[in-house]
Amino acid sequence: MWNDLWVVQVPVAEKVIRTVLVYALIVVLFRLGGKRGLANLNTFDIVVIFLLSNVVQNAIIGTDNSLLGGVIGATTLVVVNSAVNRWLARDARAERLLEGTGATVVADGRVVPGALRRLAMRSSEIEHAVRLQYGAAVSDVALGRLEPDGQLVMTLKDTQQNATRADVQALDARLATIEDLLAALTSAPGSGSTER
């Protein structure tokens, strides 16, 4: 029993190399698969992720089923992922290479021709993103982009955007000015109602 827990059945270097290579393969597969973030996964994407973890399990662990071997594999994954994230944060070229660039999906109220097909998106995803920005229809959007992290970012046309705090403050100031003018008019001599 103790042997199964603590004796690594493959060389540690092989375990680390297997884990790094499988990590790299998965990154490449997801990069080729498109720009779909976790928030935008559909049922089929989730099924693929669950099955993928099972498919690559043996490639990572090999013939080793020890607890220590699992710890080595898990630690390697976390360290490699942390290193890649730090690299991406420092190097814009690496970020473009591994994550790609954003893609315009809506321009001036119209879906960009071929964008949905090229990005494997459905029109319902675009409509949902528009509603999240409080737009009524795609025609309300000035610019819509699918970012490298899979988020759909919609910028509504100026005429369709909600009022900002600055807009409300400007309105308050104008109303206060109107109230002051009305008060001045009603209190001015000769402005009262004429008596008969």
State the gist of this model:
This protein has 196 residues and is α+β, with helices and mostly antiparallel strands. It has 8 helices and 4 strands; from the N terminus they run αααααββααββα. Strands 2-1-3-4 form a 4-stranded antiparallel beta sheet, covered by helices on one side.
Describe the structure.
It is a multi-pass membrane protein. This protein has a four-stranded antiparallel β-sheet with strand order 2-1-3-4, with helices on one face. α2 crosses α4 (67-90). The protein has two domains: 2-99, no CATH class; 101-185, bsu07140 like domains (CRO Repressor, 2-Layer Sandwich). The longest helix has 24 residues, at 67-90. By secondary structure, the chain is α+β, with helices and mostly antiparallel strands. It has eight helices and four strands; from the N terminus they run αααααββααββα. The chain has helices spanning 2-6, 12-33, 43-61, 67-90, 92-99, 115-119, 123-132, 165-187; strands at 103-107, 110-111, 141-146, 152-156.
Largest sheet: 4 strands, antiparallel
Number of strands: 4
Helical residue percent band: 55-70%
Distance between the termini: 111 Å
How many structural domains can be distinguished in the coordinates? 2
